[in-house]
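Risk register update: the risk of archive-format incompatibility is retired. Evidence:
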Amino acid sequence: MNTKNFKRIIGGQFDATIAMLEECVRNCPPKHWRGIIGKYPFWQVAYHTLYCTDLYTARSDESWKPHAKFHPTGRAEIEGEYPSRMFMKREILAYLKYCSKKVRTSLKRETESTLDGPAGFPWLKKMTRAELLIYNLRHVAHHSGQLGAFLRRKRVKTKWAKSGGK
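Archived output:
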């Protein structure tokens, strides 16, 4: 498969997966924002999903820069088990929009050579950039599924997205 097609396919699936995450966040009633999924509240699962998406759009761990709005304590915000504070729905939706744009920008700069090159993160030593894109996509899908299942158990409906255009 050529690089252009690979990027188109991954981009479309990323758009759809992020749309499903957005669907969960938008439809989460205030009374469930702190609802526990595993051992973390709903909002924190959404935040974790986004900061990993944000991080993995960088060329490398070293090149990733925390955003003051989404990481008020810098890298410490994501290195500890818990963020420094609870993030509200509007903040998570703003972060989602930011990450969605970063994914598209990141994909545009990829070439056949960069996709075949190292992922750029020491804990993912054997991964290529191409594999990192799929890994990142699976991570968003995994947590979107958790959030969606939680909401369905609470009788909150969410929709499936075939594409970024839903």
